[in-house]
Amino acid sequence: MQPYELSLAAAAREIRERRLSPVELVDSVLDRIEQVEPHVAAYVAVSADHARRTAREAEREAAQGSYRGPLHGIPVGIKDVIDVVGVSTTASSRTRAGHRAASDSTVAASLRAAGAILIGKTHTHEFAYGLTTPQTNNAWDRGRIAGGSSGGSAVAVASGAATFALGTDTGGSIRVPATLNGVVGLKPTYGLVPRHGVTSLSWSLDHVGPITRTVDDAALVLTAIAGHDPRDPASVAVPGVDYRPGPEPDLTGVRVGVPRTYYFEHVDADVAASVRHAIAQLEALGARLIDIGIPMTRYIQAVQWGLMVPEATAYHQATLRAVPELYQADVRILLEAGELMGAGDHLRAQRARTLMRDAWARILEEVDVIAAPAVPMAAVPSGQETVTWPDGTVESVSDAYVRLSSPANITGVPALSVPVGRDTAGMPIGMQLLGRPFAERTLLRVGHAYERTQPARSLAPVT
User: Fold this and answer.
1) How many structural domains is the chain composed of?
2) In 3D, which of 307, 373, 313, 380 has the Cα closest to residue 345?
3) What is the DSSP string of 171-191?
4) Measured CA distances, 92 to 208, 256, 268 (Å)
5) Residue 113's domain spans which residues?
6) For 227, 261, 333, 434, which has the most beta carbons within 10 A of its beta carbon?
7) Which residues form the Amidase domain (predicted)?
8) Catalytic position from the list 105, 110, 149, 150
């Protein structure tokens, strides 16, 4: 096995026990990037010289007994809406030409303190405002979409071009590409991970979180990046938590809610079958399945758009008026649409969100987690704009992908996507676990327990 094939936890163990050096790991990942990047285009920029220099420093520290923890010497790809000092944050947009970050974002500073090594900045759908990341190809089939908006991060992890990555999630932008590329994605509770230094799409929906090979890896990253920062008004002070799940896949006593409404409606048959099979596996591990209804489903799409669109437009207002021609057409249309929405629309969406949060809180008193499909279908071919369901309903691809993920953004609850199978074309399928606010340990425990019963997943064979 080559070093780039190691999970974060495995690589950390090898580095800690001095069987692998950070230099060897970084060199292996950089070689892998050189091999796969022409096929997948996951990166905006690769920081090879900086990564090698930092790896040598990490190696010296380890040799001197100064080991910073499980992220010490581990290569990370960071979504290009997250500031890293001295590095351009382009947000994959022409409007950011010549930009350089004057300081680290909070999460970049946390990763730096933990010893992680920036390997490069990964592509996003322009300003994270889309679900396809069109400049990046799916790791399993380059004729299919990567998913967005953290598509570059998911593809980098799935193809071995990063040991782990950071993404952002406003309506599913961590979980959607993680699912479509067969890796793990975690959207933490709103406020758990600070967003200072992260380009905003919609301030009341934005989250930062990890994309990793395994659930255990996601727990290691979350432990490093969670924490309070008063520079983010939404940041919540939570006592330091070690999110790593226990080794035994025992779910005795865990109550798993299985939706009878919404999450299994207009869902591909392969997706539904794979997720239900995974839920049955949770039951076999000792979990108790409880039938639940999802509240206020008719309002979900309107609330998501009613919050996101005007907030995004407000952020971009000055640039949109000064240089509208520099935006991609799909993003410009959405930003201009936001100027047509009145304050009343936004206020009604905020009120509906409050009612939705309350209703979800009542459900999550009855169950510990909710298990459901992460997305309604696997990755579609690039350029496909709509999907037609068996009942004749036609849905845009973007609406389809955001439909099952946006409730967690609206309510702020944590959500974890875990690979659970493949469709008939061999494309990855994912299960989504949702839980109570700040109950990430429970989600990670359940996801880890399921993962422990499955064969180890291989990297995408990019060709």
Assistant:
1) 1
2) 307
3) SSTTHHHHHHTT-EEEE--TT
4) 17, 39, 31
5) 1-463
6) 434
7) 24-444
8) 149
106 within 8 A of 126, measured Cβ to Cβ: no
Put the strands of the sheet holding 415-422 in their side by side order: 43-46, 117-122, 75-79, 164-169, 207-212, 184-187, 415-422, 428-435, 369-373, 255-259, 288-292
Nearest to 7 by CA among 153, 211, 250: 211
Question: Is 173 noted as a catalytic residue in this protein?
Answer: yes
Q: Name the residue with tokens 């993003």.
A: 331
Task: Give Cα separations from 191 to 140, 182, 206, 443 (angstroms).
Answer: 33, 27, 9, 17
Dump the DSSP string for 435-457: ESTT-HHHHHHHHHHHHHTSPPP
Is residue 149 flagged as an active site residue?
yes
Catalytic residue (one of 28, 153, 173, 274):
173
The residue length of the chain stands at 463
Per residue in 79-123, pLDDT tens? 999 999 999 999 999 999 889 999 999 999 999 999 999 999 999
pLDDT tens digits for 221-276? 999 999 999 999 999 998 878 898 887 778 999 999 999 999 999 999 999 999 99
d(CA 376, CA 268): 6
Strand blocks (E) in 360-427: 369-373, 386-388, 394-396, 415-422
The three-state secondary structure class of 292 is strand
**Structure tokens given for 442:** 């429970």
Catalytic residue among 21, 47, 79, 274: 79
Q: Could you tell me if 81 and 91 are in contact, meaning their C-beta atoms sit under 8 angstroms apart?
A: yes
Q: Are 407 and 307 in contact (CB under 8 A)?
A: no
Tell me the pLDDT band of 427, cut-offs 50, 70 and 90.
Answer: very high
pLDDT at 15: 96
Q: Tell me the chain's radius of gyration from C-alpha atoms.
A: 20
Query: The CATH number of the domain where 212 resides is what?
Result: 3.90.1300.10
Please report, for residues 112, 150, 339, 431, the alpha-carbon distance to residue 446 in angstroms, rounded to integers and kept in the order given. Answer: 29, 24, 43, 11
Amino acid identity for residue 18 in this structure: R
Q: Give the torsion sign (CA, 60, 64, 65, 68).
A: negative
Beta-ladder partners of 388 = 394
The answer to whether 202 and 170 have CB atoms below 8 angstroms apart is yes
For this structure, is 396 an active site residue?
no
